[in-house]
Design goal:
The structure holds 2 protein chains of 2 kinds.
Chain A lengths: L18 H15 L15 E2 L3 E2 L6 E7 L4 H4 L4 E4 L2 E3 L4 H10 L10 E6 L5 H13 L4 E5 L1 E2 L4
Parallel strand pairs in A: 1-8, 3-6, 6-7
Antiparallel strand pairs in A: 3-4, 4-5
Chain B lengths: L12 H15 L6 E6 L20 E6 L5 E3 L2 E3 L3 H12 L16 E5 L6 H23 L3 H9 L4 H8 L6 E3 L8
Parallel strand pairs in B: 2-5, 5-6
Antiparallel strand pairs in B: 2-3, 3-4
Helix pairs in contact in B: 2-3, 3-4, 3-5
The chains are: A alpha/beta, B alpha/beta.
Keywords (chain B): Cell membrane, Membrane, Protein transport, Transmembrane, Transmembrane helix, Transport
Main location (chain B): membrane
Protein name (chain B): Biopolymer transporter ExbD
């Protein structure tokens, strides 16, 4: 009998039986958080940079409006256009669009509708101010100029 | 006779779950709904037509941007940094009648902001950012927190009391005028 016993064969395997559970948990997390985009953006979107960003808290009140140079310039030209949902609109159609969007909200929160303006950096102030004037007429006066964070120097 | 137990092979379950997981991982977009918030004035039609308010020159901090994105601050061409512009606006707001050329009180002080139709959105956001930063930093110091922290408080509907307290006596008077059509 040798004095030193052989080391016991210790299995060095990670138990994999719980792997499906872990994966399923992750799966459910992403399934719940995923929001399918309901419209494809047809305009150029390069957000301007800013430091004083504020988060939009109530997602249900937020409606998006995109302004920028169309991606298909050969079809729509180079001038910046306004896109809502899946279509290009003119400034005069904005009041009607805002009213449709407001109708989707509860009655008591209709005046709190927030328009998130996703405007391309290269778009000009002219078209944006036309949109602003129409939004004022439509009484949707809380707006948010979407921008990305810039580190303060 | 024992019943044959139908077995579903579950070895591939993990693979299927992984496949689905990968799909949702790829399609997930983390929404980044951040930006500069702004409250627009009432529609032009709602204002009385013959309304004429005389605002003394000293209570106005004028910023103009032309279609070449060049700045004119208080009538002089401005080429400095946005940080310096923020500090100028802060000085202007908190003057409290000290300098006879500058504002009388924070309540009367107005940051007036005029662009051209040809000004790019990029420059507009940059200057608006500088003006809002001036106010936010004042609010933050009123509350004794950093500007970043203050913006979190401002976005939180449950902390209205702190928010209103910090803004007391310092209304955010940023006026954005109708753009000019000069071009040059």
């Amino acid at each position: 009998m040798s004095k030193f016993k052989k080391k016991a064969n210790v299995k060095q395997e990670i138990p994999t039986s719980s792997m499906p559970d872990v994966v399923f948990m992750l799966l459910f997390f992403f399934m719940v958080t995923t929001v399918m985009r309901d419209s494809s953006i047809m305009v150029k979107q390069k957000m301007p940079q800013a430091t004083q960003l504020r988060k939009l808290m109530r997602k249900s009140l937020v409606t998006y409006l995109y302004i920028g140079e169309p991606s298909k310039t050969e079809q729509y030209g180079k001038e910046p256009k306004i896109q809502v949902n899946d279509v290009f609109i003119e400034p005069k159609d904005i009041i009607q669009w805002v009213n449709v969007e407001k109708a989707k909200l509860n009655e008591f929160e209709r005046d709190q509708i927030t328009i998130s303006m996703k405007v391309d950096s290269d778009a000009k102030r002219g078209i944006i101010s036309d949109v602003e004037t129409e939004l004022r007429r439509a009484n949707a006066r809380i707006i948010n100029y979407s921008s990305v964070n810039k580190k303060e120097i | 006779m024992p019943r044959a137990t139908p077995d579903i092979p579950n070895a591939s379950m993990a693979d299927i779950a992984f496949l689905l997981l990968t799909f949702f991982l790829v399609t997930t977009t983390v929404a980044n709904d951040k930006g500069l918030t702004l409250q627009l004035p009432p529609p032009p039609e709602a204002l009385p037509q013959d309304l004429e308010i005389k605002i003394p020159e000293r209570n106005l901090f004028k910023i103009q941007i032309n279609s070449f994105d060049a700045l004119l601050v208080e009538g002089d061409p401005y080429t400095g940094s946005m940080r310096e512009l923020t500090d100028m606006i802060k000085m202007f707001i908190q003057n409290n009648g000290l300098d006879p050329e500058s504002s009388e009180s924070p309540i009367k002080a107005i940051v007036s902001f005029k662009t051209d139709r040809g000004t790019t959105h990029k420059k507009f956001v940059e200057v608006l950012d500088a003006a809002q930063r001036a106010y936010y930093e004042i609010y933050a110091s009123n509350l004794g927190v950093t500007a970043d922290k203050w913006r979190d408080i401002a976005s939180d509907p449950d902390r209205r009391v702190e928010y209103n307290k910090s803004r007391e006596g310092y209304p955010m008077n940023i006026s954005i005028a109708e753009p000019t059509k000069v071009g040059g």
